[in-house]
Amino acid sequence: MIERAQALHALSENEFDVVVVGGGITGAGVALDAATRGFSVALLERADFAAGTSSRSSKLVHGGLRYLQNFDLGLVREALLERQLMVALAPHLVHPLPLVVPAFDGARPDRLMGVGLNLYDVMSVDRDRLRAGRSVIGRGKRARASSDRSNDRSNGEEGNRPTQPEEGESWSPERHRVISGEEVIELLPALTAREPTSGYLFYDCQTDDVRLVLTVLGEAERFGTVCANRVDALRLLEHDGRASGVRALDGESGDEFDVHAANVVNATGIWADRLIDASELPRIRPSRGTHIILRHEDLPLLGGAIVPAGDGRTIFALPWLGRTLVGTTDRDYEGELDHVRPSTDDVDYLLAATNAFFGTALATRDLAGAYAGVRPLISSGDPKKSVDISRKAELYEASSGMLTITGGKLTTWRRMAKLTVDRLVERDSRDAPCHTHEIPLGQAIAAEDLPRVEGVPAESYEALAGRYGYAAHDVLALAAERGELAQPIVAGLPDLLAEVALAARREQARSIGDVLLRRTRLGLLAAHELPVERVAGVLARELDWDAGRTAREIERFAAEASAEGIGSE
Ligand SMILES: Cc1cc2nc3c(=O)[nH]c(=O)nc-3n(C[C@H](O)[C@H](O)[C@H](O)COP(=O)(O)OP(=O)(O)OC[C@H]3O[C@@H](n4cnc5c(N)ncnc54)[C@H](O)[C@@H]3O)c2cc1C
Asked: Three-state SS for 245?
């Protein structure tokens, strides 16, 4: 990413075809799609890239088994196809994840779940790709397109870990099947004491949501997009009643300036109804979701578990970045949107469901971290519970011509972007088809192909390759040049101090929170162990902070962490 100062200069000096407001996954996707169709694009993010909902998801790239209950078949099908595409485009960042629905005391796994999983299997198959002969393998075998095989039997002949596709092949999940109690324990060691007797095994995919956003933005920039964070779009500029750009505020200097563009896209998620006359949009109905994070030793999982949580609801318990992630809740929310805290009730609810299912006695003091986010659901005016509101994306065109794209899911970002840019293309009468289905996201690399650097812990290479792909070379070059940056930020976790410096140099990180909450995820994974002063020291050198500024930044992080409920019990 170019330096922020350079980006600001370009924003005020140029006229663009499109200005995208919002640097979450939706805005990043729109920027990439538009840039790859030949538009000149600017993207403005008021806070930090992915600071909104896109850093607060369950980190699943999935069809959403749960939405089958609401008969949202179109959404599930679309998301399942996107899931498969994401593994092909960003194999280092989007990984297949085995998920288990365990059964106990010799009971048959739930029949209704089996029906849902059958449907999930059928809908995951991309017939076009199969026909083109491109869709291959789950666990070293050709994908089965037919659905004539009974899955309610364990064949027991293969392990349960999905293999990564070989070069030139794309991942396609195995059909779900029933596995034995021993296999359930192999994937979910935390259930050992409960002696599961069988379970359903199926696959979805997992990512780091922020890194997905940053990677998509990186690609958008490669195609010419100018991106800047800490730039607030204050209001629309209009010419003859048509949107012609936005008045922007540089959140660091306090200066205002105009960004001129022929088209404006509002991709501000839960803030979407603030940039536009509210009468031109349906109301956003915010729904809060909380997650808790536990140490692997306290709840060891190698695959994900579907955990009952009362009232027919289920939550996920998932392995993520060496810890265990449990969530989510889903409740209407009316509080402050800029900083969302996990509520005590939500944390208690998640702990109670976890303890009841795994037979543990985990308490708030055992949390490694917790976070909450708000879904940008679109209110249809009826009193449905938020859990039942569709996750479908919607595109609105205001009388000024401004397009607003909202709703949707992390998984379906590419489709949302396509919907938006198709409309821009149509309005301009251009002949510019979408290309994002064939543009690799980042450059995947195997950890063993990275050069070894003295002082870098062995487990860091895998983590670096997963986070940056080929760009992990740059982190390691920095660690080799300045030995003190080869050390982990938090002892026992793979993130390196070199990443702090790189985040400031290459990813527009401007604050301690940018580094601890988003460029790395340590604020979530190790909330009570954050070496804030050490991180501030590395940033100070990169961003020319003097002692006074460094002290103010440390205070600012303490306030941000407190507002987000990071590290509190
Ligand atoms: C608890 C929870 C769990 C979820 N789990 C999953 C999951 O596992 N899988 C999945 O597919 N989806 C999941 N989702 C949904 C998914 O996270 C969201 O649909 C997606 O992240 C929304 O992205 P967005 O870009 O539209 O919004 P955001 O990420 O919120 O981006 C909007 C951005 O606009 C910026 N902005 C606002 N106003 C302005 C302005 N005036 N000027 C400039 N910038 C502005 C904000 O700062 C923000 O960064 C989950 C959501 C929640 C809440």
From this structure: strand
Cα 525 to averaged position of ligand 1 atoms, centre (Å): 20
538 lines ligand 1 (CB under 6 A): no
CA dist 3 and 9 (Å) reads 10
Nearest-CA residue for ligand 1 atom 37 is 268
Q: Minimum mean pLDDT among 63-72, 319-328, 469-478: which range?
A: 63-72
pLDDT of 170 reads 65
Compute, in angstroms, the gap from residue 53 CA to the centroid of ligand 1. Answer: 3
Alpha-carbon gap, residue 307 to 101, rounded angstroms:
8
What is the Cα–Cα distance from 416 to 420, expressed in whole angstroms?
A: 6
- Determine the distance from the C-alpha atom of residue 211 to the mean position of all C-alpha atoms in its chain, rounded to a whole number: 7
Q: What is the whole-number distance in angstroms between the Cα of residue 163 and the centre of ligand 1?
A: 30
The SS3 of residue 477 is: helix
Binned at pLDDT 50, 70 and 90, residue 384 comes out as low
CB of 53 within 6 A of ligand 1: the answer is yes
Ranges assigned E (strand) in 167-255 = 177-180, 198-206, 226-228, 231-239, 242-250
pLDDT at 458 over 50: yes
Q: Which has the closest alpha carbon to 180: 205, 206, 152, 204? A: 152
Report the C-alpha gap between 372 and 289 in whole angstroms: 5
Q: pLDDT tens across 40-69, in order? A: 999 999 999 999 999 999 999 999 887 777
Closest residue by Cα to atom 10, ligand 1, is 410
Report the alpha-carbon distance of residue 227 to residue 8 in Å, rounded.
9
Q: For ligand 1, atom 35, name the residue with the nearest CA.
A: 22
Residues 316, 431: Cα–Cα separation, whole Å: 44
Token pair of 101 as six digits: 């629905």
Taking residue 46's Cβ as centre, other Cβ atoms within 10 Å add up to 21
Atom in ligand 1 nearest the alpha carbon of residue 372: 1
pTM of the full predicted structure?
Answer: 0.93
With CA atoms as reference, report the closest residue to 271 among 324, 338, 329.
338
**For 128-142, 349-363, 458-472, which range has the lowest pLDDT when averaged over its residues?**
128-142
